[in-house]
Design brief:
Keywords: Membrane, Transmembrane, Transmembrane helix. The protein contains 24 helices and 2 strands. By secondary structure, the protein is an all-alpha fold. It has 2 domains: 100 residues, no CATH class; 312 residues, no CATH class. A two-stranded antiparallel sheet has the order 1-2. The protein starts with 10 loop residues before the first helix and ends in a 5-residue tail after the last helix.
Length: 504
């Protein structure tokens, strides 16, 4: 199998297209990204209705007149919006205000999708069989989510809205990349290379001098605002009494054991965990690993090498496991063929699940306890309780008795596990939604049989692995920077293939 030096065109073709793109177009792309990310945040503190109306107008203009750039705007907003919120955090008044402004990138994503899907729906007969098949499968996923969203609205409207965003975003991003690529394919390498350089520069500032990073981003104010309720409830004092770890300032909140696991035994290396421009360590780890994969498959290995320390200090096991298993499967494909590679990956993931659950129950791992809570909830009521009925975002962790949960071998309701939460919220429909993700991964793998591009195989492998990681993390499936970015890559690959006129 020939190497894949690009994303995902051939090397010479990529060079010609990058030259054609030109510096002006690069500047335009990042100007659009900044405008749609920053303007609504600034206007929100003037008048929220003005911010929403402006964002609706801006997003509509971009998707109508600069359609190929819409996916790039989505990626930029998902990665950097929280950085700009941090810079403006001095204007935040209430926690509801904070939660509201974080929803603007989702609003942008929805507006893009509505325009693109609306155009498709009006002209679906003119699209290829492959395109229509993909859209129908995605609609099945949307339908399952929609039914349980309506059920959740009757119980907890706020919770239903929060978890709707988390659950539906990967499919929205997939279709945005897919439909935009169908209209016009642009080279992705320049954008993601520049994005990677920006992430590396920011990452090294944060890693080398955390105080300077917090000064530059106004992070002190955001961290104080985010933890104000915990400080009022004397959570730090309670934690010190049970763990012996005293919280004396913001930096102490960032201290964790490397990889945050007791499996390392007496090797307790305490680090200042990195959170990245998006402000969340696990999501940041997945974004870094995603960019590493893109850079390695595009012969930009030096950028991937520079990101390795950032991945280490973001300290998320799931992202590292995803990258390692994907590259091992790629090696297996080169040595033994495509069917052996996908089959061996499936076997390894089954063993990974079994070992993870058994070991997690023995050591009282919170993620496994949360997953088992979802399994017990499913067995008790397999029809689902509605989106927003359980999960990390709706749980007050300060009041949980983890020692009692460890003794019981599960939590009372699902948490700390995306699959566990889905089993509680969507019941049997969970298997339908997960089947949609696996089906999409297999379609991309079929494309790799024709294209013989390494990145196409890796896209399939990381999709399957991150879905399995959802058993042990909420963020694996619910963070737009994990499954969301990966689905965007799948959408681009499938869109390019459908644009070529071939069928699967």
């Amino acid at each position: 199998m020939p190497a894949s030096p690009d994303f995902p065109e051939s090397d010479s073709q990529s060079s010609r297209e990058e030259t054609a793109l030109g510096a002006f177009e690069h500047l335009l792309v990042f100007l659009l990204c900044l405008t749609l990310t920053v303007v609504p945040l600034v206007l929100h503190f003037v008048n929220p209705l003005l911010a929403i109306a402006t964002q609706l107008a801006l997003a509509s203009c971009v998707v109508l007149f600069f359609t190929p750039y819409a996916p790039l705007v989505v990626v930029f907003a998902l990665l950097f919006q929280n950085l700009f919120i941090s810079m403006m955090s001095g204007f935040l008044v209430t926690k509801d205000d904070y939660n509201f402004v974080r929803g603007y990138n989702f609003f942008t994503t929805v507006v893009f999708w509505l325009w693109l899907f609306g155009h498709y729906a009006l002209n679906w007969r003119s699209f290829s069989r492959m395109t229509n098949k993909l859209m129908v499968v995605c609609l099945i996923g949307f339908g399952l989510i929609g039914v349980y969203f309506l059920l959740g609205l009757t119980k907890s409207p706020a919770g239903a809205v929060v978890y709707l965003r988390n659950i539906i975003t990967p499919l929205l991003v997939l279709q945005i990349f897919f439909l935009a690529t169908l209209k016009r394919q642009i080279p992705m390498v320049p954008f993601f290379t520049i994005l990677t350089v920006i992430v590396i520069v920011m990452g090294y500032i944060e890693m080398i001098d955390r105080r300077l990073w917090l000064d530059l981003t106004n992070g002190w104010t955001l961290w104080e605002f985010s933890n104000r309720e915990a400080m009022l409830n004397l959570v730090a004092d309670k934690s010190a009494r049970t763990t012996g770890q005293y919280i004396t300032g913001i930096l102490d909140l960032m201290k964790v054991q490397l990889f945050n696991t007791p499996l390392l035994g007496d090797f307790r290396l305490i680090i200042l965990r990195m959170n990245g421009p998006n402000g969340h360590a696990i999501s940041y780890s997945y974004a870094l690993m995603f960019l590493c994969i893109l850079m390695l498959t595009n012969k930009r290995w030096y950028l991937a090498l520079l990101m390795a320390p950032l991945v280490l200090f973001a300290s998320a096991k799931g992202a590292i496991i995803m990258g390692l298993l994907a590259f091992c499967a790629l090696v297996a494909r080169k040595l033994f063929g495509a069917m052996f590679a996908i089959g061996s990956l499936a076997v390894v993931l089954v063993v990974y699940i079994l070992l993870g659950v058994v070991t997690g129950l023995k050591i009282g791992d919170f993620h496994v306890l949360g997953f088992m809570g979802g399994v017990y909830n499913f067995i008790d009521y397999p029809f689902g309780n509605g989106i927003g009925d359980a999960g990390n975002l709706l749980t007050n962790f300060d009041k949980l008795d983890w020692s009692a949960f460890q003794h019981a071998g599960r939590t009372p309701v699902a948490m700390e596990s995306a699959v566990g939460v889905l089993l509680h919220q969507m019941g049997f429909a969970t298997f339908g939604l997960l089947a949609v993700y696996f089906w999409i991964a297999l379609q991309v793998y079929k494309v790799s049989f024709v294209s013989r591009v390494n990145l196409h195989s890796l896209a399939c492998f990381i999709t399957i692995t991150v879905v399995v990681n959802g058993i042990f993390q909420e963020e694996a499936l619910f963070s737009p920077l994990s499954l969301g970015l990966i689905m965007g890559l799948n959408g681009y690959i499938l869109g390019k293939f459908a644009r070529s006129g071939e069928d699967l």
